[in-house]
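In practice, a research group might receive sequence data for several interacting partners and want a quick structural hypothesis before committing to experiments. The following worked case mirrors that situation: the sequences arrive first, and a predicted assembly follows.
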Amino acid sequence: MTDMNSSEFPGFIPGGGDLAAFLHANKAAVDAALEDAGALLFRGFDVPDPESFDAAIGGYGEAGFTYEDSLSNAVRTNVTPRVFTANEAPPTTEIFLHHEMAQTPLYPAKLFFYCEIAPQEGGATPLCRSDWVLERLTAMAPQFVARAQEHGVRYTNVMPSSDDAGSGQGRSWRSTLSASDEAGAEARLAQLGYSWEWQKDGSLKATTPALDAVRIMPDGRRTFFNQLIAAFRGWADSRNDPGRAITFGDGSPITQGDMAPAIAIADELTYDLAWLAGDVALIDNFLVMHGRRPFVGKRRVLASLIA
Ligand code: FE2
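A structural hypothesis for the assembly, expressed as tokens:
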């Protein structure tokens, strides 16, 4: 094990042998490094297949957060009970920076990623420190940050009646809400504090209650914990208009002018994690945003969520 006390981003942990055993034996040091860097890359360990990735997650030993129970909009397929495909959206689709599921009231604390097959070209996972973004954004656009912090933000998403794997936001309302019919979907939305509107084609337009846009970490660091960048830049498909996807919590619009500084700062602070087959990354979902670059060739990156 090398020095894990540096604030290098992401923390890089070269090694060899069994990752499950390593994570089990070094849990406290791994967690300290994660708290410091926000993202860790385990490279050179012996993780040949999804089963050994699953075992590594078991070695880490924290409780999982299941995709079925989540309100994630992404279409995914389970490989083991706690490991699933990261997003089935087409290779040409960029998935912009976000905190996992921060557009819903239910989100995981950490994420594991595993590269089973590295793409021929592109396909990096951009990572961005959200505390650094918020610090810079507060200096550059203090009024926007103050409004977002005071009112929170709302997200509006139109969910199809059956899965649309051609979209990064294609998960059906039946699957998203674990509902078999419209009454079940409405009961779940009401319980979550959403408002909704059924569309003529059977799809469902849902708007969240006001959700926090800024999160304060236990050590006092403040992070841009939301899904504004991904929603604004990326929620475009046959059902969704990204210009209408986000508002402040009081319903007033969040404009291009509001988002431009956040996007520019985040782009500047982004580190592209270029995958090698066998790599495993661990990400603090409260501290670091992630996304997916477009790619060419076959790419298989799997994910698992920690509660
Ligand atoms: Fe994600």
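Before designing any experiment, note the following. The CA atoms of residues 149 and 214 lie 6 Å apart. Residues 256-269 form the longest helix (14 residues).
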